[in-house]
Amino acid sequence: MNLKVRPLMRRCFSTSVNTGEQNLITWVRREGGRVGALDQQGSQEGGWGLRTTEAVKAGDTLISLPPHLILSLETSNPLLLALFDRVPEELWTVKLGLKLLSEQTRFQMSQWWPYIQNLPKRFTVPIFYTSEEIQALQYLPLTHQVHKRIQFLNEFVAEVKPAIVGQAPQPGQPFNNYQILPHALAWAATAASSRAFQVHREGGGSSLLPLVDMCNHSFTPTGRLLQHSSESQSLPVLEVVAEKDLEKGENVVLNYGPLSNDILLLDYGFVMPKNPNDRVELRYDDQLLHMACLVAKVNIDSFKDPTTSQLALLTRLNLHGPSSSQMVTLGGTELVEGRLLAAVRVMHAQDPMELLDVDLEALQTWNQSPPLGVLNERKTIRTLIGLGMLALASFPTEIEEDQSELVKGDISENHRLAIQFRMLKKRLLLDTIKGLKARDPT
Ligand SMILES: C[S@@+](CC[C@H](N)C(=O)[O-])C[C@H]1O[C@@H](n2cnc3c(N)ncnc32)[C@H](O)[C@@H]1O
């Protein structure tokens, strides 16, 4: 990886949080915001979190953030706007990162300076991992994303260098004539990915919300983010309200959304055990499914040689054809993605005639009575179990080995996270296999 840790700018920043004048709560209040009975505390998740300092009633406002403290993409700098145009829409974190860097390089001149000084100096997202740590993830869909992001950041910085390096002082240069290195942009884009919230206004847009972004994540949140806006174009007033009655000393945690562990690690740098949104991705592939049949000792040739009616149904499931999407998932309460379940049922159909008027919706869900009969269901379930076993076997290590690697004291924080990530994927596959076995009609 080419994202070397180098000084962020030509000037160094302190890595400690100054609880004096830079205290975010004091700053937000001074700026006209309202902050209820809260304080900023070291959290059990690591880093900072917010906690109540007295009992609070459900619906009470804990934070009210004035619109001018929202750090959005809004800018009148034409050079910065030109840079935004060169970033693909889906990489909004890079755009917001560029805006953050443009404020950071203004130091005390930026109205967000007290906020920027409090941002973490390091992140545990995989774009900062060594190649050994990336390899330790053992999961191709994620490592692919990591490499894609690293490559984009390196290429982007190289490509726009003349615009942002500023060898000679240039009026309007968005970074105050500071040189932006790939590592600095990676830091800023990660600050954006791990801390931004979607702000509802015309044109949409994710923005950094000082202090609100001190709230950690939970799927059982104690706080909720509300947005009030009189005009659709203007930035709203943002409020964190108590989701339920809270006692003194309770953590104020928000639900960041239905995110998988892939996204949590990639964007936020942590993973959640028992994450209801986590899945294992794999490609719907005839050969792989044929192998799954062999592993599960299910006798079938149709995965290699499908009939016309089977192919027609695979096309309707968007698993066959030039613009089809062959990425399918295992895991979760549904155990397998509906399209995959339907496809395997279709491929195990004994008689092509029974596929003529088949109900595609019914094929994609677990029903009381198997839609194509008990024998078909048995073969389908066994094939899916075989697929789960193959997915499990594609990891180079077993959970027990991961466990013993974890208890070794000499691994980095990133390496530890990578091992935890892959263990959760393996547990998810084991749970899926168990769930499928319980559905076997034999
Ligand atoms: C919006 S910030 C929350 C405040 C942050 N803890 C801090 O110190 O500034 C999101 C980051 O907090 C951490 N975080 C939030 N929820 C977490 C959780 N449930 N488990 C572990 N880390 C969490 C992650 O580092 C994540 O990138």
TrEMBL record:
Keywords: Methyltransferase, S-adenosyl-L-methionine, Transferase. Pfam families: Rubis-subs-bind, SET. Residues 31-257 form the SET domain. InterPro entries: Rubisco_LSMT_subst-bd, Rubisco_LSMT_subst-bd_sf, SET_dom, SET_dom_sf, SETD3_SETD6_MTase. PROSITE patterns: SET. Coiled coil: none annotated. GO terms for molecular function: protein-lysine N-methyltransferase activity. The keyword Transmembrane does not apply. One of its GO terms (biological process) is methylation. SUPFAM superfamilies: RuBisCo LSMT C-terminal, substrate-binding domain, SET domain. This is SET domain-containing protein. It comes from Physcomitrium patens.
